[in-house]
Amino acid sequence: MAYQHLTILGDSITDRRNHYATKWYYDWLAEWQAIPKVTNLGISGSTIAPPYDPMVQRWQAIPTDTDLLLIYAGVNDFGRDTPLGQFGDQTAATFYGALSQLLGRIKRQRPMADCYFISHVMIGTTFFPAVNHWGYRQIDYEQAIQKVTTAFAVAHISLYQHPELSFANAGQADRLSLDTLHPNDAGHLAIAKVLNLNLETNEKDHF
Question: Which SUPFAM superfamilies does UniProt cross-reference here (predicted)?
Answer without folding.
Answer: SGNH hydrolase
